Amino acid sequence: MVASLGAFAAPASAVGPDQYGGYDTEVYTAGCQSGAGHVVDRHRPADHLAIDAGNAAAFYRCKPTAGGAMEQQERVHCAPGASFDWTRGLCGPARTVPEMGTKLTAGRAELSSPSVSAAKVTGLNATLVRDRDNGPQDAIWNATITFKDGAGKVLCVARTDTAGRASCDAERPQSAVGAVLGGYTAEYAGNGSVNGKFNTVAPATARGAVL
Q1: 10 Å Cβ neighbour count for 165?
Q2: pTM of the model
């Protein structure tokens, strides 16, 4: 299934030969490119790829639209036992694919005036990016972020947008307000849960405050 994406962040990698005459294959972390001013090469219709933050054994192939100013995504699965190698832009043996480091930061959320039965926590949020020693940090799109209270109970779950940001609200019973006021944890489990063994995008956690 092909679906268009919104804003685009910087590429994660641009290395390795592709199937179009030896050009470099660009691998992105924030989905397929789109937006005014972006020019695609019609002679290389699939030379842009994007990681799948939820499945190490899959990736997205980016294709130009009819107008040529945007790209659409097509999800592709690797063969059994293989994972998408984001450093080379192709599928390879799962054990040989390096893990991309990640960094997760959590912001502040707010606790509304508690009612008799429940209190609402608004603005739980976290941002997931690729963690690199040098160069820009790239937003990671479509990653599942789980928000938990101080007692480890799930508050809500959300997916990151093309800026790497996920946010949601949650209601807690009056008896659990203390656990919320102690702050919350945001968790990204990595993308190896499908095959149960190998992440190609590393897990990350962060602590956020509730005011």
Answers
A1: 19
A2: 0.81
CB 127 within 8 A of CB 102: no
What radius of gyration, in Å, describes the C-alpha atoms of the chain?
19
* The pair of three-digit structure tokens given for residue 36, joined into one six-digit string: 């005014």
- Per the CB < 8 A criterion, the answer to whether 177 and 121 are in contact is no
Q: Which residues of 11-21 are buried (b: 16+ CB within 10 A; e: fewer)?
A: bbbeebebeee
What is the distance between the terminal CA atoms of the chain, rounded to a whole angstrom?
42
Q: How far apart are CA 124 and CA 133, in angstroms?
A: 28
- Assigned token pair, 29: 């972390």
CA–CA distance, 59 with 92 (Å, rounded to integer)? 12
By mean pLDDT, which of 26-35, 38-47, 77-86 is the weakest? 38-47
CB atoms near residue 41 (< 10 Å): 12
What's the half-sphere exposure (Cβ side, CA atoms, 13 Å) at 78?
Answer: 23
Residue 104 makes CB contacts below 8 A (sequence gap 6+) with 126, 127, 128, 145, 186, 187, 188, 204, 205, 206
CA 147/CA 127 separation, integer angstroms: 12
For residue 49 the two structure tokens come to 């790829």
pLDDT tens digits for range 107-118: 999 998 666 678
